[in-house]
Structure formats: structure tokens, C-alpha cells
Specification:
By secondary structure, the chain is of the alpha+beta class. Helices cover 28% and strands 18% of the residues. The protein is built from three helices and five strands. A five-stranded antiparallel beta sheet has the order 1-2-3-5-4, with helices on one face. It is globular and about 50 Å long. Bound molecules: adenosine monophosphate and zinc ion. Adenosine monophosphate (AMP) binds next to loops. Adenosine monophosphate binds next to loops.
């Protein structure tokens, strides 16, 4: 728990939110600045920063809820699919430092360009060298 964390306040009910799903470990609520109708954030109730410092149980519970939320959005809103996004770290555009996974419903011909960096900057890189660094 973190006293001045916005998402901890939502978990404690001190800040209002449009809840989509809740269980003993997780809450999911509508993103206040949605990219598409039904854009939802799935958040563990226990404060951890992101996937890098979360324990395996928390990660499992969050992603089980991600699947449930995706199915709810598809059934109730007529979405045809979802993008699932997690930003870990400020360099990766994480702004709220409480673990959350974005579930972004996608609709037929929604013409959404998901994120401007995705496939926007493909480089010729030495894959063998990068693989050597990762596996050495
Ligand atoms: P990120 O860049 O992954 O940290 O995304 C943080 C997300 O939290 C953004 O999409 C914001 O629109 C969303 N957000 C910030 N404050 C609230 C809030 N009070 N209720 C719902 N969503 C929020
Ligand atoms: Zn928090």
C-alpha cells in the first residue's frame, strides 16, 4: 500500500472509478483517458511498481483477470479483439508507478493506430550479436 498512489486510492475506494471486474487480488476499471471504448486497466490490489518487481502469484492473478476482462469487453461491447499492453519503467512510458495492464478493445474498422512506435522504426540489427549478449 502506498498512501499517495492514485491506483491504491482507487483500490481503497478513496477515488472513484468505473469498475469492470474485481476479485480478492485484482481490480479492473475504465481508463480515464480511453484510447478506444472500454479501454480498461487491470491492477493488483497490492502495490507493486510493475511486472519487474511483482511476484509470480501477482503476475498470474493479474493476467488471469486480463483474460476475463477481455472476454467481458468482447461480449458486452461487441469488440472483435483486444490489445494487451504493459508499460514497465518510465523509459517505457509508465506514468503511474502501480502495476497495471491496459486492455484495449478493438473494433471492426476502428482505424486505430495502436502506438506510434510499433513497427515505425524497424532497424537492421545484428541479431546474432544481440542474441550472444542475451544468452552469455
Ligand atoms: P501508463 O502510461 O501505462 O502508466 O498509463 C497510465 C494510465 O492511467 C493512463 O492511460 C491514464 O489515462 C490512466 N489514469 C490515470 N489516472 C487515472 C484514474 N484516476 N482513473 C483511471 N485511469 C487513470
Ligand atoms: Zn499503488
Amino acid at each position: 500500500m502506498s498512501t499517495d498512489c492514485i491506483f491504491c486510492k482507487i483500490v481503497r475506494g478513496e477515488l472513484s472509478s468505473y469498475k469492470v471486474y474485481e476479485d480478492d487480488a485484482v481490480v479492473a476499471f475504465l481508463d480515464i483517458n480511453p484510447i478506444s471504448p472500454g479501454h480498461t486497466l487491470v491492477v493488483p490490489k497490492r502495490h507493486v511498481e510493475n511486472i519487474l518487481d511483482a511476484d509470480a502469484e501477482t503476475i498470474a492473478r493479474v493476467f488471469q483477470a486480463v483474460q476475463k476482462v477481455a472476454k467481458i469487453l468482447i461480449e458486452k461491447l461487441g469488440a472483435k479483439g483486444v490489445n494487451v499492453l504493459h508499460n514497465a519503467g518510465r523509459e517505457a512510458n509508465q506514468e503511474i508507478m502501480h502495476f497495471h495492464v491496459h486492455v484495449i478493445p478493438r473494433y471492426s474498422r476502428d482505424d486505430l493506430k495502436f502506438v506510434d512506435w510499433w513497427r515505425s522504426n524497424i532497424k537492421k540489427l545484428d541479431l546474432a550479436e544481440i542474441h550472444r549478449r542475451i544468452t552469455s
